[in-house]
Amino acid sequence: MRVAIVGCGNVSALHFDAADNSPLAELVAAVDIKPERARKYAEKYGINAYTDYYEMLDKEQPDTVHICTPHYLHTTYAVEALTRGINVLSEKPCSVSDEEVRALQKAQKASSAQYAVCFQNRYNSCIKRLIEVRDSGELGRIKAIRAFVTWFRGADYYSDDWHGTREKECGCLLINQAIHTIDLIGYIGGDCRALTAHVSNDSLQGIIECEDTASMRMELENGVTAIFYGTLAHGSNAPVIIEVAFEKGTLRTEGEKLFSIEEDGSINEISLKSKEAGGRDYWGSGHPSLIGDFYDAVATGREFSTDAFSGGKAAKIVFAAYRSSELGARVEIDNTEE
Which of 178, 197, 187 lies closest to 145 in space, CA to CA? Predict the structure, then answer.
């Protein structure tokens, strides 16, 4: 399939490498509004460089586009591609509002092409093993979940023209860094039906327009309560922690490691297969697996797991969290499909 990558910032390197290494893909174009960034990848991979997304679609007629742009463009670019019958793999978030999620879902249903949002941490070995344990029933049902994202982002990170802005990033901690963990809470424990959240800017006042810290109490549809805390004010990028309490034991992921917590309080690491190359220790290395799986789904016609409906659920949780914090009240989430 002919593949174009749109947006040539930091995360795009993983997409270019995965596409270049796939026997199912042929890289044809790099797109960025900054011509020097598009040229850098065009020269590296021997492909064409563009500064205009729509011009690239007209001239190259790709089969698949990877969307790695600032958040506010994700849905607009995805809907355009889906309308043309072009497959889409988008970096998170899939959308920046409930209205955009609905527009994206409508476009996916009407299109002959596939859509996916990039939640690569579902492919981490620790998460795969945790899901196996859950599905086997060996530890009984899930009783509770707690999760922690404690990272650092300073002024340098927000020195470009879009990070930290309501107009282009459309939020900060929750919609950017923490959305992966929010997705995993739902993936492990079930859909979120309601939540109560609080967001604040504790360390980046005057630097960003949005939140650097958040807490949530999530009510999942199966009766499980999930507690989330995240911050970008920690001072370092610590591994994400997700702890799942089952009836007969507790499992905890820390980064890409998995631990069993025994009744006596002892903690034992569970052996897993080696992680893949790429990514960063504190947020996972699953991009190559996810991209390869998406290409296979496109090639075989298999439905991909994180489409606009499944992948859109984490975004809807983020929007509900912002509303809850603004209102100071519990907010319900509608997960029904239109």
Answer: 187
Amino acid identity at 328 = G
62-103, pLDDT tens digit by residue? 999 999 999 999 999 999 999 999 999 999 999 999 999 999
pLDDT tens sequence across 230-257: 999 999 999 999 999 999 999 999 999 9
Residue 4 CA to residue 31 CA, distance in Å, equals 8
- Return the sign of the alpha-carbon dihedral for residues 30, 35, 39, 41: negative
Cα angle value 89/147/124 (rounded, 5°) = 45
SS3 197: strand
* Domain parsing of the chain, residue ranges: 2-120, 122-268+308-332
Helices 12-21 & 287-300 angle (0-180, nearest 10): 50
- For the segment(s) 2-120, the CATH number from 3.40.50.10140, 3.20.20.70, 3.40.50.720, 3.90.1150.10 is 3.40.50.720
Q: Homologous superfamily of 122-268+308-332 in CATH?
A: Dihydrodipicolinate Reductase; domain 2 (3.30.360.10)
In sequence order, what are the residues at sequence separation of 6 or more whose Cβ sits closer than 8 angstroms to the Cβ of residue 33? 51
Angle (nearest 5°) at CA 89 between 86 and 91: 140
Rounded-to-integer distance, Cα 163 and Cα 159, Å: 8
CA distances from 73 to 56, 83, 115 (A): 16, 16, 15
102 exposed, middle or buried (CB, 10 Å; 0-12, 13-18, 19+)? middle
pTM of this structure: 0.95
Residue given tokens 């802005």 in the structure block: 165
